[in-house]
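Hi everyone,

Forwarding the result from last night's run.
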Amino acid sequence: MSKKAVSVILLTISQGVNLIIGFLFTPYLARALEKNIYGSFLQTIMISDVISIVTSVAIIQIAMMFFANIEKNFESSLKTVLVFTFVGGVAGTIICFLFSYFATQIFDNELLGVLLKVFAVSIIGSKLNEVLKQAMIKVGKTKFLMILVIATNFTKLCLALIAIRLFNSLTLLLLIFAFELIVSSLIQLFVLNKMKLLGGKFDRSVVREIFKVGLPLYLVELLGNSYSYIALFIISTYFNESQYAVYRNGSIELPMIGVMYATISTIFMADMSVNIQQSNFAAIASMKKKIITTTAILLFPVAIFFIFYSKEFILIYLSDRYIDSYKIFIVFTFALFIRFQNYTDVLILLKKSKYVLISFLVFIIVNIVLNLLLSEYLGILGCAVATIISVYVLAFMQLHITVRQLKVRYSDYIDSVRLFKIVAVSTIVIGISRVIMYYAGLPNLYTFVIAGISTLPLLFFYFIRSKYIEIELYKSVFDKIPIFGHKIYNILRK
């Protein structure tokens, strides 16, 4: 495995650990705070995230491009990008602070005014932290970065527990969340300064390129992120903060699911880039076919399991206070059936970003229209349905464009027969377990755990042993697992 792939996997591990830490902290927060207070907390995070995206000009993607460009002086590019990011962060903080005076009327929530003023400073650290991570990866500090990310997030959540448990202060909680980003940024700046990498010159030509290159990426980022925020803004405007909390808790993402397909894709990325340069489109389609099937084996059984056991999961995870969230959770779980690949990677590598932009424009129109229509008839559940339908439209548009640009057939790119078999077998096995557990009448926790350990490992083992994927492609991954990796690999390969 390449050094780059190892670095990405290390970062994926750190992201996975942080997702799990956050995943475990959410139920505590949902129980500790009243629905309207928790909803206000989530609205504050959402508004600051949107303002951060608006004022960042897709700086993360741009930083990756500049740091990888061997024709540019790394130190000068780093300094220029950092200054640009900091200025954008300050602008975002000012906008957030000013918006706090209008947010109370727009969302009919007096608490938002105070919370947004307190949390506004987080915008300075949010993008700066991510840009510095790219620099740390570039200079080979991936392991240090992994430790830093895990340590700072763990510390943040410990302090957050103190803020709620001892001081019962939502304001203090938001200050802790905001300053964790700033502290993490300062630590990375200290490391880079110690390596004498912050002595570059501010390069105005880099700023010009940021706007030239960044504008299309910026538009794509804005449109892409509308997936999460359109429904949230509509709910915040037409419904109350308690219903917002119910929706937000139902739209949770399961730990590691969000980064799984990206990690699998990384293993193939180097070969994919070479084949694109050589216009070997058949090989690219074959690689994507393997990625899709491999990811589906991991995603589909999990998605089907959580659909069947959604009510038990929400009751265990969030308590009966948020029982209404299980319907939202079921709808959002259906999104896992199309999260088996990155839909834009091939188009970007083929320099067909205009098609990405067009597909996102269609997506945002469909998303807004469906959210407005369905929310009127189905309430917050309509927003969930509208969002997922829009995501399916986007995915199939980009899939169709990719297949057309590669000049291959759908059967060359995606193994629909195997995907159908994965869904069918998983549904039958988990459906039978659902019937058995229903008549067993066990408590929710026992039902959920017993059903999970008796179905998911069995399904994974069956699909791998049935040669649905080429396990040999991942031998290097198993080799890196101490003690048991080689034994597990041998069992699965037989």
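The chain is about 80% helix and 0% strand.

Cheers,
N.
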